């Protein structure tokens, strides 16, 4: 009886902690509106020829000659953030997370589902181009040093559009395996939307995974001048290989990929990281759906996933993150909201798996039920959308108060519709340095977010706080769909 009493008290304490952490004057939230805008954001990040259906109309065609230096047509894809480089490693993770959002929550998206499909296909169409030749993967387009020395609209770019390629002799297992994961996950997400296209994605995913696995090596070494220090791989490439295999197994049910996952998961350790660089926590949550009710295959996936949850719960004795006074989760490093959105996604997905299997998570004397995970995720979502000490939404265009001076080239400068003349490399500096709000609204963009004291500096100079990225938004798409359904 004493153990049960401790369990009940622990759960109450956990809920009390989350309630106290969010005791700020609440603002009314519309998760459906936020969902619509979170997907619209990706249209503002498009590169290449824009379709007639383009809704963010101040953006125009850009980077149409990408790939010409190697006689390939590589127009399309996404700019990752506020610059004009196409970094394929985070772009692939973005595509994977958009696909996972649709797989888990697509049935809750309503009319936004079609736009989510379009966002995924904008990535996969591009990655089919990037992987068209066997044993070759286009890993990036655009010299970041050249790009970062200019403040230019993507439509005006005259900086170096160098194409970076990984091959059998200059491998890049992390970027290749993440592209394989994106293609495999998207093949599931799009299977009912376009069966033939879905099958093509899966075939290409297998081809690219084999290349990544059979020719191992880091793109840090092969194309380091292009990716470092911007998107260096700090965690090695094995997590991407296991992640790619996990998605291929989910997409194909081929036991070969399951055996690969089981054989290599132990080498990763029970790490709780998840984002564009580290896939450890995502692997365990993804696999947990398959093994949660299968004791013979639970190790180490379930214990690792449980460790993730215990590292996040505010009252857990093994908590590995901090929370601001306003209740926002924090990890070391820039652009903190990338962690908030990714972990919120994993919390909800794992809670749903737990609910189906009548499972709880034990963190010392704290016992967490699925509802506790959902409640924690909700505190994070609500904080991002405005229930925070500043009563500020960190999604551009959502709510009454949101960032006005985001670090984003296209958003700061007039559209070609308004100013058709070419804006040269340094001619954009006056827009960057202006104290006025950005000229164009990058609707739905989630910025890097506030500091650990809940303060926010609305300044283009403060890159870590004011720059949006595709991989901050992508997990939030699924999260918002879930809360839209729960709180219409």
TrEMBL record:
<dbReference type="InterPro" id="IPR018221">
    <property type="entry name" value="Glyco_hydro_9_His_AS"/>
</dbReference>
<dbReference type="GO" id="GO:0008810">
    <property type="term" value="F:cellulase activity"/>
</dbReference>
<keyword id="KW-0732">Signal</keyword>
<dbReference type="InterPro" id="IPR012341">
    <property type="entry name" value="6hp_glycosidase-like_sf"/>
</dbReference>
<dbReference type="InterPro" id="IPR001701">
    <property type="entry name" value="Glyco_hydro_9"/>
</dbReference>
<keyword id="KW-0119">Carbohydrate metabolism</keyword>
<keyword id="KW-0136">Cellulose degradation</keyword>
<feature type="active site">
    <location>
        <position position="407"/>
    </location>
</feature>
<dbReference type="Pfam" id="PF00759">
    <property type="entry name" value="Glyco_hydro_9"/>
</dbReference>
<comment type="similarity">
    <text>Belongs to the glycosyl hydrolase 9 (cellulase E) family.</text>
</comment>
<keyword id="KW-0326">Glycosidase</keyword>
<dbReference type="GO" id="GO:0030245">
    <property type="term" value="P:cellulose catabolic process"/>
</dbReference>
<feature type="domain" description="Glycoside hydrolase family 9">
    <location>
        <begin position="31"/>
        <end position="480"/>
    </location>
</feature>
<dbReference type="InterPro" id="IPR008928">
    <property type="entry name" value="6-hairpin_glycosidase_sf"/>
</dbReference>
<keyword id="KW-0624">Polysaccharide degradation</keyword>
<keyword id="KW-0378">Hydrolase</keyword>
<protein>
    <recommendedName>
        <fullName>Endoglucanase</fullName>
        <ecNumber>3.2.1.4</ecNumber>
    </recommendedName>
</protein>
<feature type="signal peptide">
    <location>
        <begin position="1"/>
        <end position="26"/>
    </location>
</feature>
């Amino acid at each position: 009886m004493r153990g049960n009493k401790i369990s009940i008290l622990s759960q109450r304490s956990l809920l009390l902690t989350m309630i106290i952490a969010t005791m700020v004057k609440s603002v009314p939230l519309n998760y459906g509106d936020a969902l619509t805008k979170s997907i619209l954001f990706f249209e503002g990040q498009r590169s290449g020829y824009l379709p007639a259906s383009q809704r963010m109309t101040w953006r125009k065609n850009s980077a149409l000659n990408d790939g010409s230096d190697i006689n390939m047509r590589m127009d399309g894809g996404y700019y990752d953030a506020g610059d004009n480089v196409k970094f394929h490693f985070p772009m692939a993770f973005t595509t994977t997370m958009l696909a996972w959002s649709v797989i888990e929550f697509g049935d809750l998206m309503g009319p936004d589902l079609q736009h989510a499909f379009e966002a995924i296909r904008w990535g996969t169409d591009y990655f089919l181009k990037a992987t068209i030749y066997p044993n070759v993967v286009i890993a990036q387009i655009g010299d970041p040093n050249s790009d970062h020395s200019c403040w230019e609209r993507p439509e005006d770019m005259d900086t170096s559009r160098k194409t970076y390629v990984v091959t059998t002799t200059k491998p890049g297992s992390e970027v290749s395996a993440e592209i394989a994961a994106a293609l495999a996950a998207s093949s599931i997400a799009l299977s009912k939307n376009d069966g033939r296209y879905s099958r093509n994605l899966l075939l290409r995913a297998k081809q690219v995974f084999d290349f990544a696995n059979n020719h191992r090596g880091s793109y840090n070494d092969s194309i380091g001048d292009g990716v470092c220090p911007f998107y260096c791989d700090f965690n090695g490439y094995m997590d991407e290989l296991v992640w790619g295999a996990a998605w291929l197994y989910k997409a194909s049910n081929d036991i070969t990929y399951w055996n690969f996952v089981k054989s290599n998961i132990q080498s990763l350790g029970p790490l709780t990281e998840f984002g564009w660089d580290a896939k450890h926590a995502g692997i365990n949550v993804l696999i947990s759906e398959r093994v949660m009710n299968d004791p013979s295959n639970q190790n180490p996936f379930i214990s690792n996933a449980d460790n993730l949850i215990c590292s996040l719960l505010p009252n857990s004795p093994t908590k590995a993150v901090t929370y601001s006074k306003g209740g926002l989760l924090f990890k070391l490093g820039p652009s903190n909201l990338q962690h908030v959105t990714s972990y919120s996604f994993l919390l909800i997905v794992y809670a749903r798996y737990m609910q189906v299997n009548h499972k709880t998570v034990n963190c010392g004397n704290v016992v967490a039920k699925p509802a506790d995970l959902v409640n924690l995720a909700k505190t994070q979502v609500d904080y991002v959308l405005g229930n925070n000490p500043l009563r500020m939404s960190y999604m551009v265009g959502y709510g009454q108060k949101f960032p006005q001076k985001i670090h984003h080239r296209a958003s700061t400068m007039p559209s070609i519709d308004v100013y058709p003349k070419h804006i040269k490399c340094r001619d954009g500096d006056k827009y960057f340095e202006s104290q006025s709000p950005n000229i164009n609204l990058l609707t739905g963009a989630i910025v890097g977010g506030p500091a650990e004291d809940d303060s926010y500096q609305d300044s283009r100079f403060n890159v870590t706080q004011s720059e949006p990225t595709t991989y901050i938004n992508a997990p939030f798409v699924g999260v918002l769909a879930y809360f839209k359904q729960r709180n219409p």
